[in-house]
Amino acid sequence: MIGYTLRTLIKMAVTLFVIVSLVFFATRLSGNPVDFVLGVGITEDDKQLLIKYYGLDGSIWTQYWHYLGSILSGEFGLSFLERRPVSAIVAERIGPSLKLIFGTMVFTFCVSIPLGIAAAIYRDRLAGSAIMIIAFLGYAVPAFVLAIVMIMVFSYWLNWLPVVGNSTFSHYIMPTIAMSGMWVAALTRFTRNAMLDVLSQDYMRTARAKGMPERVVILKHGLRNASITLLSVMGLQIAGWIAAGSVVVESIFSWPGIGEMLVRSAIQRDYPVLQFGVLSVAVAVILINAAVDIAYAYADPRIRLAKGT
Amino acid sequence: MIGPVLKVEDLRVSFGGFEAVKGVSFELGARETLALVGESGSGKSATALSILRLIEREGGRITSGAVLLENDGGKTDLRHLREDALTGVRGNQISMVFQEPMTSLNPVLKIGDQVSEVFIRHRGMSKRDALAAAKQGLDEVRIPEPARRLSQYPHELSGGLRQRVMIAMALACRPKVLIADEPTTALDVTTQAEILRLIKSLQDEIGMGVLFITHDMGVVAEIADRVVVLRHGEKVEEAPVEDLFARPQAPYTQRLMAATPKLGEGSTTREAGLETVLSVDNLSTRFAKSKSLFRKADAGTLAVDGVSLTVRKGETLGLVGESGCGKSTLARSILRLIEPESGRVEVSGQLLTGLPPRQLRASRKNVQMVFQDPYASLNPRLSIKALITEPARIHGMVQAREIRDLAASLVSRVGLEEDAIDRFPHQFSGGQRQRLCIARALSVSPKLIIADEAVSALDVSIACQITDLMLDLQQRDGLSFLFISHDIAVVERVSHRIAVMYKGKIVETGSWEDVLRHPKHAYTQKLLAAVPSPDPARRRLLDDRLEHQDIAV
């Protein structure tokens, strides 16, 4: 168990290092922030002063070295534009992002798992086929298309739902659905396949032979087994929302979260914010993966007991 | 019979357009054991699953007939019972035990949870009371340390223990009828004997009727009171067990009896040659546990532990032993499909151990293998012609224009028509496929064939034909066999000499007569005592004096 944990930690550290380095070099390739921050008509002397002030003088390797050093000492720097510590900026934005992702997660799982089970049970009937056709169509609609269509219909024409902000429950409806969209379709499909696999197992016959009502057979004996397969997919989904989904959806709905911050800082060449934002997202994704591993072991006693010894 | 508790009348079951059960009727009395016997496709399992209407989940449908359960003087027809009432009967008044203990328990639920839910469902107990009852249930089926088992998962138990858990679940509510569908087929003979004894003694205690489905005439003779013989979905004979074995009436029953190998009938082999074909000397194979960066590789287990044996030209060496004893690992180690740790293997004077890969491949043509599962052993996308001549082509022993002739001569040697060579595996039955596997092995004119449980998956009458074919080939071509099987009666039929394997070691070797008639090692004696005898007059497995004892190697 100690070896396993140690191995996992080393893997996480290596992954983080690679991501941190990639982000550093990628941002340096995209132009000088000083040109962007300053307007026209500034003198060359002032410009050099600012470059030095931001720590952008010296070779790229010197900057990289300083950057790594400051990360290790927990110093993530100040935003070029806001002159505030980037950690404070990110801290403000984590809350709204987490709420949105959590809402999306609950919505996706609550919709697609029951649908997938139903599609498996009624696979030979019209209902089962209908669910799968809808899921297939849903999979073909990207989040930004869904978002824009919803804004057109529910905000512009019907005037039912607000577009910008996150103050009330109704603010959550459209971003949540936009972010869930194709994931609902994918998870429905995965659930159906996992359940179909489980339904034909011998232990399901045993459960029925014991006189268990169909509800218990499906939910207790079936879903517990299917969930082992589903967990890894669900982990990927959550990671996908954190890393990619929130960037698109938060930008469309001006949601004050990490994703919107990343886009803005990239456009404005605000390196410290961008770097720390990406680092936070990477840490979150890695943590989710670790959590899935643990949940996986919990769901499947064969793995749990093998690792425990 | 003390009044029937279960009555099946003119039962018909269809799968799509195919009728699997064609009007079967029988009665089962309280405290009676009725055996439902037949080969694959006889409809015996379809009948069993239809009683509790579990057949509907397997894609089948009861098209006519009645399943009547005696109920406080009245009769309930299960065929027309509503689903919620039916679940009240299942596991309560009628229970089932299935063939595969490895897959019949839910892998993610604790044993205690799985057993106690029966009490919660049918007896309305609280979770705590149900767990206490479950513990008592496990104790009843003689599971050691029942309290500890409650919090274990199925994969932590052996096959025999799992089947005991299944029985504990089935008997939890003291059912009137227990349906046991091949409950011991997947188990070793010694474990089978224990489970049969257990079912019998619990039957006496509870007073239930047992419907015992099996293909094994030996098991029937040991436990049944009456027997119903099924074939192609029809009842061909019904008789008390003594009458059936003494005077089988239906021609099919007679054929079935004749095909069943009986321990003690003797070997049917002819004299073997003197030349040594296979010589294995002190061979050991270790299964190492996983190595990793952070953990030192531990010693692992010796699956084959210093095994020595020889097979002569025209001789069959039977290798018997229970699952996990290392028989298959030994077979694979001989061919170096698994790399042995130490020891020597010589085939016709050529040393196999230590050969570089290229030469090893070339020398493998002298030894060919035939495996257990004839369905998985033939690539479904290749024609028979391509399949059975493949080894010869790999070893460069045949020209492209000779392939057809070679294939035709191979299929005729294994007793199939020559037009078989242009067909595909799915067009053949299990027995025919095993013939094709043998033909494929013959294509490179090997000196030795290793048959690893080659007839274990086949019905007795088919298995009998396959062993006859092997004996034929041996007499005509002087072929040698290493015949690996857990079925001692089959081994007796085909072997000149027998080696008994236990925990990776050969504990006894000798002529078939010495080993089977005068066994010296305690394990051989225990193994032989556990073999069911297909003669109801000589029942012995149910004798409690045979209670299990551990044997030192």
UniProtKB/TrEMBL annotation, chain A:
Report the main location listed first in the record: membrane
Entry keyword annotation includes Magnesium: no
Q: Does the keyword Chloroplast apply?
A: no
- CDD domains (UniProt xref): TM_PBP2 (cd06261)
Q: Name one Pfam family in it.
A: BPD_transp_1
Residue ranges annotated for the ABC transmembrane type-1 domain, each copy included? 94-292
Q: Where are the transmembrane segments?
A: 12-31, 100-122, 134-157, 169-187, 228-253, 273-299
Kindly give the membrane topology term recorded for this protein: Multi-pass membrane protein
Q: Which SUPFAM superfamilies match?
A: MetI-like
Keywords noted in UniProt = Cell membrane, Membrane, Transmembrane, Transmembrane helix, Transport
Subcellular compartments = Cell membrane
Q: Which family does it belong to?
A: Belongs to the binding-protein-dependent transport system permease family.
Protein name (database record):
ABC transporter permease
Q: What organism is this sequence from? A: Roseibium polysiphoniae
TrEMBL record, chain B:
Q: Where is the ABC transporter domain?
A: 6-257, 288-528
Query: Which superkingdom heads the taxonomic lineage of this protein's source?
Result: Bacteria
Catalyzed reactions per annotation: glutathione(out) + ATP + H2O = glutathione(in) + ADP + phosphate + H(+)
List the subcellular locations. Answer: Cell inner membrane
Question: Which Pfam families does the entry mention?
Answer: ABC_tran (PF00005), oligo_HPY (PF08352)
Main localization category: membrane
Q: How does it sit in the membrane?
A: Peripheral membrane protein
A GO molecular-function term, please?
ATP binding
UniProt keywords, alphabetically: ATP-binding, Cell inner membrane, Cell membrane, Hydrolase, Membrane, Nucleotide-binding, Repeat, Translocase, Transport
Identify the EC number(s): 7.4.2.10
Subunit note: The complex is composed of two ATP-binding proteins (GsiA), two transmembrane proteins (GsiC and GsiD) and a solute-binding protein (GsiB).
Under which name does UniProt file this protein?
A: Glutathione import ATP-binding protein GsiA
